[in-house]
Amino acid sequence: MDTLDEFLMSRPPTPARPLLGVTVLVVEDSRYACDALRLLCLRSGARIRRADSLANARRHLRVYRPTCVIVDMGLPDGPGEELLAELSGATPAVDVLLATSGDPSAESSAVAAGAMQFLPKPLTSLAEFQTAILSRLPSDRQPSGPRAIPREVVDPDPLAFRDDLLSVSGLLSDLGDDQSSEAVNYAVRFLAGLALSAGDTPLARAASDIDRATDRAAALARLKALIEARIRDAATV
Fold first, then answer.
1. What's the pLDDT score for residue 4?
2. Could you give the angle at the alpha carbon of 214 between the alpha carbons of 74 and 199, nearest 5°?
3. Nearest to 20 by CA among 43, 49, 53, 1
4. InterPro entries under this entry (predicted)?
5. Domain end (from 113, 141, 169)
6. Ordered alpha helix ranges (H), 54-151
7. Chain-centre distance of CA 197, in angstroms?
8. CB 76 within 8 A of CB 51
9. Are residues 136 and 163 in the same domain?
10. pLDDT single digits (tens) 156-197
11. CA 73, CA 5: separation in Å to the nearest integer?
């Protein structure tokens, strides 16, 4: 921990920065969704660390114990439920254990695995983010005095959206004609969550069409073409 981190972590929480002293480990494979959480932490005074897979999250957790862990339910090397179950019974305990997903049906499995709360994507509300964490911290970790409920929402960096598109485009290209692999299923789930977070309805629809398509190859071709179009559009911004 550097000098600035030590200074920030030693300061008591304030109404304006109610999460000073809190470390949040975000286990999220989307750079776009992670940038939203970075901005939420920044506005709240929390320190953020990111892991993009179960394996990387476990490496973080061998080194330190964060105050809060936010786990995406669909990760490249396994379901988020695995990490939630591990952490819900861990010693020392994590003070705040949250789950997130663009798929609302994932809430029941997240809670069953040990999540204290499920946060549906897109997660951009400062009030929702702060309340989910503060409501589970002891009174001595709360800011003193009245705290106004913030109405602010964050707007993630569009370049992070493009980075996610480039990543999944590369994954689909590497798979070639293999249309039934788990990697394709992961890419489709990833895109569905990304599209929801970005408010991109046509991309979300194209991703959801894969599972019900009678011609999966044609549906994947349409999805790839849409991804490439989005990448070109982002490059001109």
1. 44
2. 45
3. 43
4. Bact_response_regulator, CheY-like_superfamily, Sig_transdc_resp-reg_receiver
5. 141
6. 54-63, 80-88, 107-113, 126-134
7. 10
8. no
9. no
10. 999 999 999 999 999 888 876 666 678 888 999 999 999 999
11. 29
Give the residue from 93, 107, 96, 94 showing the smallest Cα distance to 133: 96
Q: Which residues pair with 125 in a beta bridge?
A: 153
- Note whether 165 and 207 are within 8 A (CB): no
pLDDT of res. 178: 64
Question: Residue with structure tokens 């951009």?
Answer: 124
Q: On the CB side of 191, how many CA atoms lie within 13 Å of its CA?
A: 32
155: exposed, middle or buried (C-beta count within 10 Å: 0-12, 13-18, 19+)?
exposed
Assigned domain for 27 exists:
yes
Q: What single-letter amino acid sits at 111? A: V
129 and 84 assigned to the same domain: yes
Distance between CA atoms of residues 33 and 29, nearest Å: 8
CATH assignment of the domain containing 82: 3.40.50.2300
Separation of CA 46 from chain center: 16
212 to each of 107, 114, 195, 203, 217, how far by Cα in Å?
Answer: 23, 31, 18, 15, 12
Closest to 100 (Cα-Cα) out of 179, 188, 194: 194
Same domain, 84 and 169: no
Return the beta strands (E) in the chain as ranges.
Answer: 23-27, 47-51, 68-72, 74-75, 78-79, 96-101, 117-120
Higher pLDDT, 150 or 53: 53
| Helix H or strand E encompassing 31 | helix 31-44
- pLDDT category at 148 given cuts 50, 70, 90 is confident
Q: Is residue 98 part of a domain?
A: yes
Q: How many domains are contained in the chain?
A: 2
